[in-house]
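hi! just following up on the protien thing from before. the input was this:
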Amino acid sequence: MLATSLIQANQPEECQVKIEESLLLGRPKIFYSYIPEIGRCAVRFSTNVWTDSPNVFSNAKDCIKTCCPSSCRPHCCRGYRKDRLAKIY
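and the predicted 3d structure came back as:
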């Protein structure tokens, strides 16, 4: 519990909010969002997600840079491998 509190304290609030969904079905959208339950950014698919929702990112790079800032890596994104991602980003 304490570890979760420390992790959340180091993350922007937008990474902790639930994704806002519309009641209307729209075009299928693939997006990334931070999932606190699994502790990492994940690809998601939905037909009714608000693209203005704070926890919706168009690519993995933006999700990781926003929700896994260097001040809390690797604890805020389990599975984050600094050496591997350094080559990509």
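Residues 16 and 36 are 7 Å apart (CA to CA).
The helical segments are 2-10, 60-67, 82-88.
cheers
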